[in-house]
Amino acid sequence: MTIERTYALSDIHGHIGPFRAALQLVDLDRDPAAELVLLGDYVDRGPASREVLETVRDLQQRFPDRVTALLGNHDDWFLDWLDADDEDSSWLLGDADLGTVKSFLDPLELAHALGHDDPGSDASVLDGPTMNHNIKRVILDRHADLIEWLRGLPRVHETDEQIFVHAGVDEEAGDLWRAATPDHVLTEKFPPTFGPFVKTVIAGHVRTSEMHEDGSHVTFHDGDSHYYIDGSVEVTGRLNVLRFSVAGGTYESFVAGPVVETD
């Protein structure tokens, strides 16, 4: 089947409801001519980081030729923490209310990792390397396959017309951008670049409200070669969905809100 529509999503940040709403809009099951490119930042800020990662992985397994998932800086930082020396608990201390950690561990597992037996009570202080070690070990043991899948995600996806990336590329290098762009720039580039480039760059990472003069969260297009789609889901409860129609070479943006769960 020839691809006729390419959809892009970014910066889901542990918010499974808006993600499900966006997937209903894309509808890979009913539209075999559609593909989906996910630009990273699946974890942190929301309550369902693990569920988002599992959903992305399942999509890739179901549609291996039509779903591409890229790595974002928050995903990279999460992996760096898992691999770092146990003395370095900076990522853990920045995990507000242990929201990301709690998505990976059930309450009793977390209680044991924090050094007590009460699943209804968190430790008030993360007291150093022992807790850091315990939490990492349980995540790595329980979710080894998921973490290994995350480690294998690429940082950039290139087509004949587009560059899909979490943050951006070294545009000063022109046609040589791929060789010239370090990995950390692909996931952490700031500030965003505007203007003409050799291909259309589709990225997330920087909130579109910082680019729109009116502070709106919808997709930002600079009028040239750049689309930015990070809609601050942690603030708005919505995700921007960018669609590229191959036949006309045109882009259209949609906003997907959370799915209301019913019994």
Mean pLDDT: 94
CATH H level, superfamily name of the largest domain: Metallo-dependent phosphatases
Q: CATH fold name of the largest domain, please?
A: Purple Acid Phosphatase, chain A, domain 2
Number of helices: 11
GO biological process, one term: RNA decapping
Domain Calcineurin-like phosphoesterase: 5-205
InterPro entries: Ap4A_hydrolase, Calcineurin-like_PHP, Metallo-depent_PP-like
Keywords: Hydrolase
Topology:
Layout: E1 5-9, H1 16-26, E2 34-38, H2 49-62, E3 67-69, H3 73-83, H4 90-94, H5 99-104, H6 107-113, H7 129-142, H8 144-151, E4 156-158, E5 162-165, H9 177-180, H10 183-188, E6 200-207, E7 220-221, E8 226-230, H11 233-236, E9 239-245, E10 250-256
Parallel strand pairs: 1-2, 2-3, 5-6, 6-8
Antiparallel strand pairs: 1-9, 4-5, 7-8, 9-10
Your description of this structure?
Strand 9 and strand 10 form a beta hairpin. Helix 6 runs antiparallel to helix 7. This protein has 263 residues and is of the alpha/beta class. The strands form 2 sheets. A 5-stranded mixed sheet has the order 3-2-1-9-10. Strands 4-5-6-8-7 form a 5-stranded mixed sheet. The chain folds into 2 domains: 5-72 and 155-256, Metallo-dependent phosphatases (Purple Acid Phosphatase, chain A, domain 2, 4-Layer Sandwich), CATH 3.60.21; 82-147, no CATH class. The two termini are 36 Å apart. The chain has 11 helices and 10 strands. Residues 5-205 form the Calcineurin-like phosphoesterase domain. Its EC number is 3.1.3.16. It comes from Brevibacterium linens. GO terms for molecular function: bis(5'-nucleosyl)-tetraphosphatase (symmetrical) activity; protein serine/threonine phosphatase activity.
